[in-house]
Amino acid sequence: MPASSHTEAGPLGAGTPNTGGPPLLEAHGIVKRFGSLLANDITFFDVRPGEVIALLGENGAGKSTLAKILYGYYAADAGEIRVRGLRKEISSPRDARALGIGMVFQNFTLIPALSVFENVALFQNDLPAIMRRGDLLARMRSYSKRFQIAADPRQPVRELAVGEQQKVEILKQVLAGARVLILDEPTKVLAPQECDGLFRTIAELRAEGFGIVLITHKLREVLDCADRIAVMRQGRVVDIVDRATASQEGLLELMFEGALAAPPRPAGISAQHGGAAVLALKGVSTLAGAGGTALRDLSINIRPGEIVGIAGVSGNGQRELGELILGLRQPRTGTKLLWGEDASRWSTATVREKGVASIPDDPFALACVPQLTVRENLALGTGGRYRAGLALDWQKLDGDMARSFAKLGFPRPHFEARAATLSGGNLQRVVLARELAHDPKLIVALYPTRGLDARSTMTVRALLTGARADGAAVLLMSEDLDELFAMSDRLLVLYRGAIAGEFDPADFRSETVGPPMVGAGRHSDAA
Ligand SMILES: Nc1ncnc2c1ncn2[C@@H]1O[C@H](COP(=O)(O)OP(=O)(O)OP(=O)(O)O)[C@@H](O)[C@H]1O
């Protein structure tokens, strides 16, 4: 059984409170199978008071499954859960909540039309006594202050930014009595400044003796914020390490059973660089649409063999820009040219047939149908490529997709499995394998490494730079400035649907690129 001790002064700065007593939560001998797949085989895992324990592991390692068992969402096939040293049956999230275990999922469960207060109040129905509105409001205000959760109780949730919604989720759980909070990839959807806010809240919770389970793929976050790190591989917790003794290299070795070999470096920028524009937007504006962002007077050129990065806080028009290029929305004014032809009114099918690939920001919502099988999802949007009379040539599709998975170095999922049963990262891999299977000439990639483990992230980055070397044009949208700086030949900042700055590699610094991302220091020399 892995053993470890608390670090003396926690990395979050507050110092680990020495609350003593048994762990808040323990898992012993937990086994969970899905058919023949052993998703969890956990000898031991525990969460102590006043600590952040990170749960790390490659895509499909079993992290979410363990979290869902602890939260009563899945029933384990075997094993025992103890809460404060006592054996407990947790058969539903309701049981878990009654025992002080809360979980914040990747997809929030708030009701957009209701106010913050109503959302929090609705969740409190498990409390033993009916709480009066005034009491709950007072407690809400006090908890918000203590845990640095700035939330106006009257504001409708739909008006909140993603980071604010996440904090309301945390508030809701804490008010309902959670002492253990499981956060499933909480920073996956957050902008950098929102991450800082989340970590401040986590620090306050930790200082008050809460136990936090942080599931993440971001090693820097783990090393900055966790007291202990549990590493999972193929359903097992293979080690629990103290942060004081942990290193990035050591964690990668534990996750991937050995050193992580860097993928071969692509040959560099292709000779085709500088040719005629693959995509040219000329003064394009669009309507906002329901809840969306209007694009305003966008002029962007992308040439073959070029990666143009789009920096910006999510929600500033990235999704709409992707949809515009794909033909899912049309310019109200201005022109969209693809390979020199006016493509403003082209259908999505035509755009895709011409060689445009799309990696959208939310594979579950925008690129996959969860109820369909992996194979059916791999056929989505492939147009006439696999048509054989009235049917589809599934064999050809299987062969192409198997090759694409192999090229990407991703393990091939069962093509018959329903997409809904895949882990988040594995579903993202399916979208990538489909979109990159046929050497696209223009790749529109929104947050393409979101939710991927370190190895898959390296592969995807190498693949995009490799596509550039082969003459493809890439539009890379990301909130991760390190990723953008490492990969882009040029960087545009998107703010409220307009270009707020353009930067060459010599100016790739967060002090320079960061301000226009939040509307400060607006550059007028936009593309
Ligand atoms: N409901 C389900 N039915 C069938 N298989 C499932 C189900 N839920 C998860 N799995 C499988 O269990 C394995 C572990 O999945 P899990 O979601 O726990 O991984 P993870 O470590 O959280 O991955 P990621 O980092 O990609 O989110 C995967 O192979 C996944 O396909």
Provide a descriptive summary of the structure in words:
By secondary structure, the chain is α/β, with parallel strands linked by helices. It folds into 2 domains: 25-255, 3-Layer(aba) Sandwich (Rossmann fold); 279-518, P-loop containing nucleotide triphosphate hydrolases (Rossmann fold), CATH 3.40.50. Helices cover 31% and strands 23% of the residues. The chain has 17 helices and 22 strands. It has helices spanning 63-70, 93-98, 116-123, 133-146, 162-175, 192-207, 219-225, 248-256, 318-326, 348-353, 363-367, 374-379, 394-408, 424-435, 454-469, 481-487, 510-517, and strands at residues 25-34, 37-47, 51-57, 78-83, 86-88, 101-104, 180-184, 211-215, 228-233, 236-242, 279-285, 298-302, 306-311, 333-338, 341-342, 356-359, 387-388, 391-392, 442-446, 473-478, 490-495, 498-503. The strands form 5 sheets. Strands 6-7-8-3-9-10 form a 6-stranded mixed sheet, with helices on both faces. A 6-stranded mixed sheet has the order 16-19-20-13-21-22, with helices on both faces. A 4-stranded antiparallel sheet has the order 2-1-4-5, with helices on one face. Helix 6 (192-207) links the parallel strand 7 and strand 8 (211-215). Helix 3 runs parallel beside helix 5, helix 5 packs parallel to helix 6 (192-207) and helix 13 (394-408) packs across helix 14. The longest helix has 16 residues, at 192-207. Adenosine-5'-triphosphate is lined by residues 34, 37, 39, 57, 59-65, 421-426.
